[in-house]
Amino acid sequence: MEFEDRFSKQALQKVPMSERPIESAKDAVFESGCRDPLIESKNPRMNAAFVVLARNSEIDGVVSSMKSLERHFNQWFNYPWIFLNNERFSQEFKKKVAQVSSGPVRFGTVPEARWNFEEQQTNPVLFKEAIESQGDREIMYGNTGSYHNMCRFYSGYFFKHPLVRKLDWYWRVEPDVDFYCDLTYDPFLEMQMQGKKYGFTVAIKELVNTVPNLFRYTNAFIKKHDVPLSDAWEFFVDRFDVYKGQNSEHYKSITNIRDFWKKLEERVPMYHALQTAGEDAARVDQHSLNRLVDHSNKRGLHTVNKDRFDGTEYNMCHFWSNFEIARTDLFTSEQYQQYFDYLESSQGFFIERWGDAPVHSLGAGMFLNLSEIHYFRDIGYKHSTLGHCPKNSPHQLPYKPGSRYKNVYHEDDERNLANYDRPVSDGGVGVGCRCKCPADHAEIENSGGSCVALWAKLTADEREPRATLDLDAIEARALEMYEQYLEQHDNDGSKWKLSTADREELEKLGSL
User: Where are the annotated segments for Disordered (predicted)?
Assistant: First the structure.
């Protein structure tokens, strides 16, 4: 099976992503299975913390998330917790989180200027109409002003808060999230040693109607500042500019080589029909005529495309930023802040419903290489209805509580957690450490909206960068191949296909 075919819809239905290894020189899990956290915890701590943005009313959800993360990770490593709110935290909130944390707890208030839009004061009618319009159009969370405030804050000001700015690393945690696996190493330390700057555990497609013009403004920023794009940008865009030739317009919807060969096989018989009809109509085979008639009948169909810029189109993939482990200087850098300021000036954070997830993701795509981004495939995680929970590696170790663990769960719950899922056998695809997946778990890796298959394809060692192809040379030679086939098959081209050898010859011939 050719490399591209491994990631086709049909191939993914036969072997889902959760049953495939994802490992390459660019990215792989830091540990498949368990380490001894009592040994790992002797390493020096990084300048890092968990960061939670929450209201006082969300205390139950915050404590639930803390219990899960303390039990599965922080009981051994004791990193601090930072809590941010656009209002002052209540004494009840402070007391309850302190009862759970094995590390220090800190509290910060978000200044009004960092939370509210300037337009909420200077042009409240515009702001209100923009929010209400999104509600009328049923855009998810679009009619909630505080949601726009939150997304804007996370996109541009979160990293500048005095409590966060002094960190080298942060781990973002939301209320009401669940963790399913033990993390027995320090992810901040591993990312530092491996040269990673951004880590995710869920990658999915964004809702199109929430970001109708985000990619337009992002491309304008790239042009204005002459941003040199690296290989990470390919995770967020479909490329349509890899075929150069007089007929390239007919291939503008093609984004991978497998579909290119299919399109070429459809068009070559039409070229043959057009070329030979004027010379000797009797030489036109029926298959070529059928192709030409089919094409003519479809010419009036209208296809609606998303905005395309310089041969690229936003594919809607993004890292789900309700979980992210990252370097703060990625987002406090001058280049990212220029990007945020450019987006801010467009008013898209309230006129549209730009989430911080696509903004963070496009920023990472512009300013990082693929090798600087890490997929925490070994971390089981769920937010809302979407979750990832890996199978357990064969390499398990007995659970040992940390010295500062506050036993946040009832003993019956602890016994249930200790009864973790059966590890896969040697040779199976399992990377987790003592994972306990819910009985009703639906793996997001296998969802049609997941972008993990694209991540696996782009980071694979076997993948070769796509070269620009000379379409004129390829079509001319493919036409010769088709005509040779007709001579050998009594002018019947109905079963003509490009062989593997044909494709290799054409790709070599057409490389620019």
Answer: 493-512
